[in-house]
Amino acid sequence: MSEERLRIAIQKSGRLAEESVELLKNCGLTISRGRDTLYGRVQEMPIDVLLVRDDDIPAFVADGACDIGVVGENVAEEDRLAGARETPAELVARLGFSRCRLMLAAPKEWAWNGPASLEGKRIATSYPGLTRRFLAAAKVKATPVMMKGSVEVAPRLKIADAVCDIVSTGATLDANGLRPVATVFESEAVLIRNPASFGPAKQTIFEAFMKRVEGVMASREAKYVMMNAPRSAVPAITEVLPGAEAPTVLELAGGGDRVAIHAVCRESVFWTTLEKLKRLGASAILVLPIEKMMA
Ligand code: ATP
Ligand code: MG
Questions:
Q1: DSSP states of 26-85 as a string?
Q2: What's in the keyword line of the UniProt record (predicted)?
């Protein structure tokens, strides 16, 4: 009997690809790719990796060709809104990378008076579902015009009046005489799964994998903070440490009223945090990265 393996779809190349592989790497998973450029095999867990175009990932996952996938939430949500599938892929986790915005952009010469300015206009976009939802919420009647790529040239070509597209720096829009006017959707990479239940073997692999993903996500911001401080300052210091549970308080050799305080902070530790600690009497403050974490 062949061993059951969990199949994950990731983008082959593009803005999601590198960090998707990095996520697997941080989960302790290395992908070995043979001559086959479509398939990779994970060594450390029974997982196969399918390397594909990002547009195909929601369909592959919804149909069960793959069990899970990493894709932009913009693409996953657009697929869901298109309603082409009885049961679309389910969102399991937000992954915190490939952040971007889907934005409406209008010709610079327009006097923008909010979404009402779009009444009766045509809007070129690769995201007609998300665009329609935004327009409906704003109670504006406008027509999305589907374009697969080079959306920003549509107004110049008189194919549309405005556009709704992914914006990072806005330079492409600017070069085409457009300016961003409203945010339609804020996106980041997400993990999606097939909505049908997995068999017990696959479910076990999935749960083990998710534990690692959660660990990677948790440890990304988390820091191990150490310092020496007066014993009397321990309660005030605990208040200041971001997202920390009860810290460990240790005796320092030689006694005295100073102790060592160690804590895991689950949220970002900023310079301002260190300055506050200093004011509370802390010294020798160290902030260390945490490589792995499991609750
Ligand atoms: P493919 O060849 O796989 O179809 P693509 O050209 O459609 O790739 P990419 O440009 O690689 O797609 O973008 C993939 C995803 O990355 C987008 O759907 C979005 O979620 C995210 N993304 C897009 N633009 C940016 C950006 N400027 N910065 C960060 N992330 C982005
Ligand atoms: Mg694509």
A1: HTT--EE--S-SSEEEESSSSEEEEEE-GGGHHHHHHHTSSSEEEEEHHHHHHHHHHT-S
A2: Amino-acid biosynthesis, ATP-binding, Cytoplasm, Glycosyltransferase, Histidine biosynthesis, Magnesium, Metal-binding, Nucleotide-binding, Transferase
CA of 42 from ligand 1 middle (Å) equals 24
Whole-prediction pTM: 0.87
Class of domain 6-97+189-219: alpha beta
Please state the atom number of ligand 1 nearest to the C-alpha of residue 74.
20
CA 75 to ligand 1 center in whole angstroms: 9
Average pLDDT over residues 247-275: 92
Which of left, alpha, beta for 15 (phi over 0: left; psi -120 to 50: alpha)? Answer: alpha
Q: What is the rounded CA–CA span in Å between residue 196 and residue 88?
A: 10
Atom of ligand 1 nearest to the CA of 75: 18
The architecture of the domain spanning 100-187 is 3-Layer(aba) Sandwich (3.40)
Q: Is the pLDDT of residue 255 over 80?
A: no
Beta carbon of 75 within 6 Å of any ligand 1 atom = yes
CATH number of 222-289: 3.30.70.120
Specify the pLDDT at position 2: 62
Give the pLDDT confidence of 188-219 residue by residue, as tens digits. 999 999 999 999 999 999 999 999 999 999 88
